[in-house]
Design brief:
Helix content: 55-70%
Largest sheet: 2 strands, antiparallel
Strand content: under 5%
Mean pLDDT: 81
Shape: globular
Number of helices: 17
């Protein structure tokens, strides 16, 4: 009797474990970058053309099957301004993890400074905006310098107190704000028309987006993101925590004041009651729901809440009659109801906000393969905020 040694299976019949095979497939896929086909590029081009039409052509009634009225274009201008304000708040909450509960003060100061320069000093809008931005940066620097030793909830309370102080004191100075009677603010020369003013707001939004993009790719931007992760670890690597936090506060104040200056010009009449704590809550909701640290998400979230604030989106969807008859809620207050609901959905289901939901489409438009899991956030990003 002879022992028989089993033959080794041939190389072609060997099977790799599923995990190893999947890892090899991923490495091969990474080695060969995805390139869209001609039809893929055509499809992406059509989507880009549609987005460009919605942003640029539709508000100006160009190549449009229907005509937008003056009020509709005014709402579009306000949506662009809210996007600027959302980006300003994202610098604090998203990049540094510092929450501000008095952001309406920065917006209001920018609005009233711009109005004062144009109406009382008789200067042009193009002079008023840089002055408003400078004043916004100075007030942010002063407030930040005073409260730099505070963190978390205490810092949020300081910003809340400053917002209430501005609302009750600064905005009550009649010579500065016009008091309860408000102040009429003329549009800049050449942009008196609502359609032209919309494109002006769009240009400012593009400039803020570019500055924000450049900032995050600089040494200072990387330092800000390190602060959000862990200030102590960032400090151990030689990052000046107080200096960069103050820088973020100043940048946020400048952006917010620019948005306030445009808001004054857009409404052509401003009153101190406009810049209240309710407005500050809307700013926070639209930034968090849009998606912290995601510019596209913040812009979309800001647009949605801008259209919700005055009931514009409800009117466009023809839901005002249904809401009024069923729950007795006026369209103007629908944003305050839907906002917390969207916030809860963001925290529980979509931690990355709207930015997480549109990430697969955004990646596909950039020429990459459609991945439904792109931009997925596994942790609640609001927990990163030190408040």
């Amino acid at each position: 009797m002879t022992d028989t040694i089993p033959e080794a299976p041939e190389e072609s019949t060997r099977e790799l474990p599923p995990v190893v095979a999947e890892q090899i497939d991923d490495e091969v896929e990474d080695a060969a970058p995805f390139r869209p086909s001609v039809r893929g590029w055509v499809a992406r081009g059509l989507v880009w053309a549609l987005l460009a039409w919605v942003v640029f052509a539709l508000p100006g009634n160009f190549l449009s099957p229907f005509q937008l009225g003056v009020s509709d274009v005014g709402h579009a201008s306000k949506a662009a301004i809210f996007a600027i304000i959302g980006l300003s708040l994202n610098v604090l909450i998203g990049y540094t993890g510092t929450i501000s509960l008095g952001h309406q003060a920065f917006v209001g100061v920018g609005a009233f400074v711009s109005a004062y320069v144009v109406v009382d000093m008789g200067l042009e809008f193009w002079v008023a905006v840089p002055i408003a931005a400078a004043v916004g940066g100075i007030q942010a620097a002063l407030l930040g310098a005073v409260s730099l030793r505070l963190t978390g909830l205490y810092f949020a309370l300081v910003t809340l107190a400053y917002g209430l102080f501005a609302e009750e004191t600064l905005f009550g100075i009649t010579a500065f704000t016009g008091g309860e009677g408000g102040k009429n603010v003329p549009r800049p020369l050449g942009f008196e028309d609502d359609f032209a003013f919309y494109y002006l707001c769009l240009a400012f939004l593009a400039a803020v987006l570019w500055v924000d993009w450049r900032l995050m790719r600089s040494k200072g931007g990387r330092a800000l993101q390190a602060l959000r992760e862990n200030p102590r670890v960032a400090s151990s690597y030689g990052i000046n925590v107080k200096a960069y936090t103050l820088m973020a506060f100043v940048v946020s104040g400048i952006f917010a004041s620019i948005g306030g200056a445009l808001l004054a010009q857009q409404s052509t009449f401003i009153v101190p009651e406009t810049f209240n704590f309710q407005l500050a809550l809307i700013f926070i909701l639209m930034t968090v729901v849009g998606g912290l640290r995601n510019r596209v998400g913040v812009v979309i979230g800001s647009v949605v809440f801008a259209l919700l604030e005055e009931g514009t989106l409800v009117h466009l969807l023809h839901l005002d009659g249904i809401l009024d008859s069923t729950i007795g809620l006026p369209a103007e207050f629908f944003g305050l109801v839907i906002g917390p609901i969207l916030l809860l959905l963001t925290i529980t289901l979509y931690p990355g906000g709207i930015g997480q939901q549109v990430a697969p489409i955004a990646q596909w438009l950039r020429g990459k393969k459609l991945d439904l899991h792109a931009g997925k956030v596994t942790e609640v990003e609001v927990n990163d905020v030190r408040a």
